[in-house]
Amino acid sequence: MITDTKWTSLGSIDNFPLHLGTCVKVGDTQIAVFHLPTEGKWYAVQNLNPINERMVLSRGMVGDENGVPYVACPLHKHHFALETGMCLNDPTYTIQTFPIKEEGGELIIAA
Amino acid sequence: MKERIIVIGNGMVGYKFCERLVSKDTAKRYQIVTFCEEPRPAYDRVHLSEYFSGKSADDLAMAKFNWYEDNGVELHVNELATSIDRKNKRVLTAAGKVVPYDKLIMATGSSPFVPPVPGIEKKGVFVYRTIEDLEAIKAYAKNSKTCAVIGGGLLGLEAAKAAQDLGLKTHVVEFAPRLMPRQLDEDAGIMLKDIIEERGIQVHLNKATKNIAGEDTVSAMEFSDDSKLPVDMIIVSAGIRPRDELAKEAGLEVGERGGIQVNSLLLTSDPHIFAIGECALYEGMIYGLVAPGYQMADAVSDLLLGKEASFEGADMSTKLKLIGTDVASFGAIEAPADSGAREIVINDPHSKLYKKLVVSADGKTLLGGILVGDASAYGGLLQIYQNGLVMPPEPIQLILPASEGSAAMGAHDIPSDAQICSCESVTKGDLCDAIDNGCGSIGELKACTKAGTGCGGCVPLMTDIFKAKMKENGVVVSNRLCEHFDHSRTELYQIIRATGIQTFEELIKKHGTSLGCEVCKPAVGSILASTWNKPILEHAQLQDTNDTFLANIQQDGTYSVIPRVPGGEITPDKLIVIGQVAKKYDLYMKFTGGQRIDMLGARVDQLPSIWKELIDAGFESGHAYGKALRTVKSCVGSSWCRFGVQDSTTLAIDVENRYRGIRSPHKIKGGVSGCARECSEARSKDFGIIATEKGWNLYVCGNGGMNPRHADLFATDIDRETLIKYIDRFLMYYIKTADKLERTATWMTKLDGGLKHLQDVVINDSLGICDELEAQMQQLIDTFECEWTNAINDPEKMKRFRSFSNTDDKDDSIHFVKVRDQISPARLNETAEETAIAQ
Questions:
Q1: Which residues of B sit in the known binding site?
Q2: Distance, CA of A70 to CA of B55 (rounded, Å)
Q3: Dihedral (Cα; B380, B384, B387, B393), 10-degree rounding
Q4: pTM higher than 0.95
């Protein structure tokens, strides 16, 4: 249980283009941020694809599989669910997800 | 109370047993406990040598640690089972555990056989079985130059390839007079030896090792014929010995030459103990291949659930890629004596092909065969052999090269009980049932039946069966784009053009559902681009990373930079600029196949400044990242070449500039040759132009992709104006009607009427659309804009070319090593230090 969430600002939401992924660095961690305006939702997941061990997920395309939003790795199209972090092609892999939200025109993340 | 099953050994077969039982035991009748001597759970030993070509131990794992946990399988790694107390039905382990069982499965596998040659214990002698063995070999190889592999069988040749890949001068030493003596006959053995030696591995046959010389470490091998081979290290791969010591000690019956005796129910002499895989001895045979092991695992899992099953021997057929060459054999490799059987042989030392069929005296039954150099016929032959199908009247047709119209085995001719996937024991009937139950794609069929997920060799046949069955069921294989659109690409193209829709959001809202995916987004992006021709970044979210960053992503997440060099013509000044830019940013340089220069290893944040320098020097985007026209290759033609009959260079430059940047269903390439000698290889392109005395010949729909295809002659001796007109119409018709990611070659073969239809549309205007095609092409040509110039002049677009949006830090996860004086992506986990030591 997260009881004492520490939020970090990622700057103005204007720096995050619609639909596309953006990479941010919080401490030493690379995090991929996605905005799905049609859903009105922000997602944050680790930038590292655990399968090929490359820092690339922020550059993947977002889509949905039976209504589950995911990011597809730009290298070999592994699908990772944005909500749960589960790899939809191989459930033995999961990536970390981070709470993220908009507050007063700024994007803030708990990482 | 659940019954407990203990599985001793967690190799490929031990794991497969757990997997099979877990999936079948829906009533959760059993609890499985498995002991594994190695430090990690089961991994794919068949592809062990891929560990050297970059796969990690994790990549090779049959299943991750959490698979065991999630499925209630209690896995103990690093824990050797030390004895079996049959009387009390308990297993004792090295860690002192005492675990009772209801049923016991011996899946202890085998160990490499190391011949008792004097000196074999010296430092520098290795076996080839586990990941630990490979790690030791890799470490020792760093200080070695030469390596000998003892044993010229399957595994020995695998090991030799691995040694060669580690940079060692490699020898194979075989006791028998030929390589792979169990699978090949003499002539096939000679062929394989020639092929292997051509690839730099020296083969020594008829060699019995007498002594291994050296102080503490290996320095040479000495043979019984008194010859000598100096080597730094030795890998022993002289066969396997079943691991039966535990069984023997527990008083189970074992064979004279090793192996735990089992009957056709895979039961040992104790009715509570089964043995499967390489430790099991069935009718005097140890099966050292994975497929029979899987069959045994499958049978035991059925038996435990009260189903009928048995193991009655297995086929030893194999197909492998050894040292880059196909080798396969099945059934009898030679005509049995006095059987009247005949051998049909193709032995072509020039093309390095050896194919042999052994057929019955009446020519109707296939008894066995060997394939070296090209094993594409293997799948079909195996079907005939295993299912006793009647052979065609001229059996040689089955092994003739494909271009001569070999009689391939049709999906319809295969009986329903024929086994298609031998790794997973899936029959044609199983596949058809799964299709009837709703599997609508090859992917679904694989997931549902597991067929094609082992060695993958059956996938082409599976695809044929899938297509035939779908057709039989009257199902048109849907060409809907994906789950988000019920339309094909062509239909969407027409919708977009007719309605004037300019964005993906509008299209999916009106004609699709949900968010879209990486299949429909780029397809729609491509249609929007080929229809309205706006800069690609205006709909960046539809594009794959290549189009969003206007560069090709590489395996390490960096990008490549390719400026346009029309027709392959470049001035020294421009060439110098490319060199200077590559040097400044320390990029890797290589010529592409399309007569231009690739610079690789750029980070996203470097791309804009690299491109700015190139654009300032007069370059423009080469669209190497897009499904678009790439290059038009040319020779020097009549302006320089003494054989040239037309100016191919000028034409190529004009044509490339005419169609540059035009988005299409797949990438397109062109070529122009100045004479019939065809130095530009124009006939391997989507459109090819070859000069004649009277004008130009146009060829269409060739490509050099996965299935090379020569372009077809489309029009002869036409003048330049007609030529351009035809290409305009041809390309536009392709853009309008092809499916997503469909190359021109596939597109044409699918067109009703093929080449003739295409000629009718483009030359005779049979559809009355030529004016429209030309006008649409002209619009695309008129609205061309260099995408990189557009991007670097737009601060909004430039915002995204940063490693991180919230800091100016550079991405420090990217590392390079030096290879041949240039950068190369560091392999996973490879640090700069390690490489420095290796050199």
A1: 635, 641, 675, 679
A2: 26
A3: 150
A4: no
What is the ipTM, given to two decimal places? 0.91
| Widest CA span in chain B | 95
Query: What DSSP letter does each residue of B707-765 carry, written as one string?
Result: S-BPPEEEEEEE-HHHHHHHHHHHHHHHHHHPPTT--HHHHHHHSTTHHHHHHHHHTS-
Token pair, residue A76, equals: 């070999």
Query: Closest Cα partner for B328 from B372, B382, B379, B292?
Result: B372
pLDDT per position as a tens digit, B676-719: 999 999 999 999 999 999 999 999 999 866 668 899 999 999 99
Q: Do B813 and A30 touch (CB under 8 A)?
A: yes
* Facing B557 at nearest CB: one of A11, A19, A56: A56
Three-state SS at B227 = coil
CB contact under 8 A, B514 and A92: no
Query: What stretches in chain B show pLDDT beneath 50?
Result: 403-408, 831-839
Residues 740-799 of B with CB under 8 A from A: 799
Count of C-beta atoms within a 10 Å radius of residue B319: 16
Place of tokens 């993220």: A100
Which of A48, A59, A79, A82 best probes binding to B when mutated, by most B CB atoms within 10 angstroms? A59
DSSP, res A55: E
Contact A25 B807 (CB under 8 A): yes
- Tokens 């002698």 belong to which residue? B125
Contact B278, B109 (CB under 8 A): yes
Closest by CA position to B12, among listed B130, B132, B92, B100:
B130
Report the sign of the C-alpha dihedral through residues B114, B132, B325, B172, in that order: negative
Question: Which backbone phi and psi does B323 adopt, to 5 degrees?
Answer: 50, 40
Report pLDDT digits (tens) over B515-544.
Answer: 888 888 888 888 888 888 776 666 666 767
CA-based end-to-end distance of chain B:
60
Residues in A closer than 8 angstroms to B816, CB to CB, are: none
Contacts of B405 (CB under 8 A, 6+ apart): B397
**What are the φ/ψ torsions at residue B271 (nearest 5 degrees)?**
-65, -5
For residue B60, the chain A residue with the least C-alpha distance is A51
CA distances from B556 to A5, B513, B770, B811 (A): 34, 34, 46, 12
Tell me which residue has tokens 């794609």.
B441
- Kindly state the helix (H) or strand (E) to which residue B495 belongs, with its residue range: helix B489-499
**Structural contact between residues B104 and B91, judged by C-beta atoms closer than 8 angstroms:** yes
DSSP B323: T
- Tell how strand A41-46 and strand A48-49 pair up: unpaired
Interchain contact, B483 vs A66, CB within 8 Å: yes
- B540 Cα to chain A: minimum distance (Å): 8
CA dihedral B471, B475, B479, B482 (to 10 degrees): -130
**B496-504 long-range CB contacts below 8 Å, 24 or more apart?**
B496/B524, B496/B527, B496/B528, B496/B531, B497/B531, B502/B528, B502/B532, B503/B528, B503/B539, B504/B528, B504/B539, B504/B541, B504/B542
Amino acid in the structure at residue B45: R
| Alpha-carbon gap, residue B155 to B637, rounded angstroms | 52
pLDDT at B829: 56
CB contact under 8 A, B805 and A10: yes
- Where is B833: in which H helix or E strand? helix B832-838
Strands, E assignment, B9-124: 30-35, 73-76, 81-85, 90-93, 98-100, 103-106, 110-112
Cα angle B104-B266-B296, degrees, rounded to a multiple of 5: 95
